[in-house]
């Protein structure tokens, strides 16, 4: 890249692909495991191989990239490991849908051919999200890209499974599990998403077998009653004391079942009598074990009623529900039906309702592993940020249940267990056995099930670095420095990585866990296609550039608070990108051909130089502190404020007389400091805005190579100058007050005005007199008069303000039409009063408040507050103008 002239506008479409190629070609992302530099490492939360970049990905990977680029500039050897997850259920679903379009199922192909099809799909489409991450600017070490089913990771999975089995931490057993009839597989408990849905509560009569009465039970799932094996009541419930120990006749099935007493029963729910179906409810299963009840499975793995359902066998579960309700009503067993909102478990992949059922599966015994994972956070080996997520982490691990890791699908790591057809022995081994370990028979068949996708993901921090081999990467980069992740996979992934890392590496997988929140729309609503409020990051990057999107996400990434995103905000930060470009162009035009100073004087004569150099040191401190503590929004806002408002709005404007003047020494110093600051601000902005900063870095005098190979600015404590900052605060305050008065009084920007400043001290007077040229130029004045209090009379026809004890008066005679301005303000007040009245009427309308969505009501309240504040301000301003109008009339009289 050459230094050349800077084009008038920043065309990000032309720049981004070129710069990313430059970084890859020059090895800027490569980590050297032999380096003597301190290590910083991150493993990417592997996106599903089926995935496409969404705003959650964009936020997560932007934050990781910021940390990686920052640490490189700070002199660390940085490894950011990329990769994708094979996403067992999701990927199999995608390929099965493709086959269905051809009228085929996976069973038509058979296991081997189907898995080949999935690998073909992965080869064609699996790299799509990786390309999108590169588009986002992710500086991963792509030479180390991993896939959870690549050869190395697959071997690691087998070794872990076998070791856990040999240690008694993996076992095969029959337990209650969650089953997805759509995906036809078992799910771990945390893969079931509870969702509040409108349903019905059915009240059903269960007649006592001795004819002495009946019990009425209430259920949301009448189809499961076909598998009832008891009715439970609370032992202290007087309504049912006489029924305990008796039997009721199960309606429709005509089967006698016992009435049992158990304190588990909630007397307040429904009728206080609970139907017990051990085969289709976790709590009922526990009751069944406790009371030695029979377990009957009436719903099959395909969601169809089994032979145990009698006359209803072969029906879909929902069709059966309708038929059961109709038959109960016809037979007089249905008492009533009530509307009832209840929480129902859904498959986290296909969103179908899951069925609890008893099944023979493989499980990880998690309690011993969980204890160590909790201890590591308690003793500070791993820190969770924000700290509030620790509570959720501990709560889940304290109540952890054994992890069902077997899945009845074909795409994934096939469980390395073989069954002997002759003696029934199970052989679990890393290498495929050719004969039974117990009897020597060659009649072995491998387990059909594959492992839960999250099993391989749990090994990600060390398997991606070459474990079980003792690699230089593991030695240099494990434990990783930080994990950046969303709270939604705190249990799915983070806790499991902690358990596996501590067990196999004897150390935590990461020192810090930074948990970021969700990206929502501007009203705080969760983005979804059904709501039509999804903001596509690819479209935003096409429209506004990658840097603008990244900066927006970062600026709103407040710890513990969801990111509220809108396209308008992204567009707004696109203006910031343009501001950086235009400011650099201005500086470059003024330093062309100049031989800049090698060193900047410790205490330059000019106040503007001392002030900006002092402020710059403070900003470096703010940025470092923010990034070290994961306060990404503070990092972004500190740089935004400094660059736009202090460097551009104040400093560059103040030094223009030097840049354009005849004093070569003053010009050279202004040129040198403006470039020095620009260079270092680009370095600090680089982690969040990599593309525009690299492009501009290449054009600045005195730069070499990529900005990624430069050093982050160091704080020079000797340049911090409290006096300069105080004096500049007064100066900018005076100029700002004049500008505010001009705006409030509707004075034309082109009009030059006279200003009088009355000071309380000689020091303030001397400061303003020494910098009168700056005040005149930046406030667009005709003249400036500075005096001490009492040396001159306070002007009558003037608008005033007080800044740090200095009274500032803008003379308005011959500048402002008092009559016309008063009339204009009266008209504005009338307009605002009318608008506020309309909003207030809407907010006092009970019909609107009860029917309108919450975010609409809140928006209306915000509008009312905004209008009220504006109205109050305009009224106050009108009073000031009225007073001036009267003064002017008296003077004229």
Automatic annotation (TrEMBL):
One of its GO terms (molecular function) is ATP binding. Residues 19-566 form the Aminoacyl-tRNA synthetase class Ia domain. Transmembrane segments: none annotated. Residues 610-756 form the Methionyl/Valyl/Leucyl/Isoleucyl-tRNA synthetase anticodon-binding domain. Its main location: cytoplasm. Residues 817-879 form the Valyl-tRNA synthetase tRNA-binding arm domain. One of its GO terms (cellular component) is cytosol. It comes from the Bacteria. A motif ('KMSKS' region) lies at residues 526-530. Residues 815-877 form a coiled coil. It catalyses: tRNA(Val) + L-valine + ATP = L-valyl-tRNA(Val) + AMP + diphosphate. ATP binds at residue 529. InterPro entries: aa-tRNA-synth_I_CS, aa-tRNA-synth_Ia, Anticodon_Ia_Val, M/V/L/I-tRNA-synth_anticd-bd, Rossmann-like_a/b/a_fold, tRNA-bd_arm, tRNAsynth_Ia_anticodon-bd, Val-tRNA_synth_C_sf. A motif ('HIGH' region) lies at residues 47-57. The keyword Secreted does not apply. GO terms for biological process: valyl-tRNA aminoacylation. Its EC number is 6.1.1.9. Catalyzes the attachment of valine to tRNA(Val). As ValRS can inadvertently accommodate and process structurally similar amino acids such as threonine, to avoid such errors, it has a 'posttransfer' editing activity that hydrolyzes mischarged Thr-tRNA(Val) in a tRNA-dependent manner. Monomer. The C-terminal coiled-coil domain is crucial for aminoacylation activity. ValRS has two distinct active sites: one for aminoacylation and one for editing. The misactivated threonine is translocated from the active site to the editing site. This is Valine--tRNA ligase. It comes from Desulfacinum hydrothermale DSM 13146.
